[in-house]
Amino acid sequence: MSDGRQATEIAMIELRKLTKAFGSKTILRGLDLRVDAGESLVIFGPNGAGKTTLIRILSSLSRPSGGKALIGGLDLATHAHGIRRYLGVVSHAPLLYDSLTAAENLRFFARLYGMASPDERIREMLDQVGLTARRGDLVRTFSRGMVQRLAIARALLHDPPVLLLDEPDTGLDPQAAEMLHGLLLRLSKTPATAHAAQRGHAATPAANGERPQPIARTIITVTHSIERGLAIADRAVILANGRIVYDGRAHGMTPADFRPLYDHYCGGGGGR
Fold first, then answer.
1. pLDDT digits (tens, 9 = 90+) for 17-54
2. b/e burial code for range 190-209 (CB count within 10 A of at least 16 → b)
């Protein structure tokens, strides 16, 4: 919990005994986790630890087998549709339409988010991910790295209070990965003040139609890069064999400090 927060406050993200099984194979084993508004949490773990499964549950793409996942105090099992507008998700699937241009994709998602006049925001996001010159090109002509850039723009378009990022630098060249790293650093230090915040969040609804206070942005990142993960995180979690085996502050921790912890809990491998 962040310094100065009261235990009675609603967590932005909370897991309660969360489990997930596929047939006889259990992937997540009774996870308990609290992430307060404004926290940036990074999740490390070996392949098969359950990291992507957890992100899919939080992004309402998969349902847990047991326990609860709550965002802004609302249960994803019963309020998924209303919660989705407050989430920005970058996953292994880009969630884009190959037959539309970059700008058309963003315009389509802007309508889904209820953004009335999105053109300026679309221009801003295409510029931030370095795709302004390709705004009129069909996504099917894009390289894997360009598709990932556009997926990042899609996830950030509505300025969501909660970002869920599963290996967001997959397919990016070093220059683009550095761009993303800088963008995430800025986002981790700024509240959500655009479309999503103006509509009010489940945990901080607007009263009488008035514009609510900006919502401290909450970020959960799954990454194989200890260096990049620690650089943007307040807090680090290690997930191994479907369980949280380490949960600690990331401020001031160097990769050299963290790698022995990772190796201790995961048996080596140094990252993913």
1. 999 999 999 999 999 999 999 999 999 999 999 999 99
2. eebebbbbebbbbbbeeeee
Rounded to an integer, what distance in angstroms lies between the CA atom of residue 99 and that of residue 89? 21
Tokens 């799954």 — which residue? 222
Domains of the chain: 13-95+160-204+213-266 (3.40.50.300)
Tokens of 78: 């019963």
Q: Does 195 have pLDDT greater than 50?
A: no
Please, are residues 75 and 68 in contact by the beta-carbon 8 Å criterion?
yes
In angstroms, the CA 147 to CA 172 distance is 9
Any idea which residue has 């009261």 for tokens? 6
User: What pLDDT sits at residue 214?
Assistant: 67
CA atoms of 99 and 14, how far apart (whole Å): 38
- Distance (Å, whole) CA 9 – CA 124: 34
Spatial separation of the C-alpha atoms in residues 155 and 165, rounded to whole Å: 9
In degrees, rounded to 5, the angle at the alpha carbon of residue 59 between the alpha carbons of residues 25 and 95 is 105
Sign of CA dihedral 163, 79, 244, 16: positive
- Sign of torsion, CA 175 178 184 186? negative
Which pairing describes strands 40-44 and 235-240: parallel, antiparallel, or unpaired?
parallel
Cβ atoms 62, 53 nearer than 8 A: yes
In the predicted structure, residue 153 carries a pLDDT above the cut 90: yes
Is residue 176 within 8 A of residue 149, CB to CB? The reply is yes
The percentage of residues in the chain with a pLDDT greater than 90, rounded to a whole number, is: 68
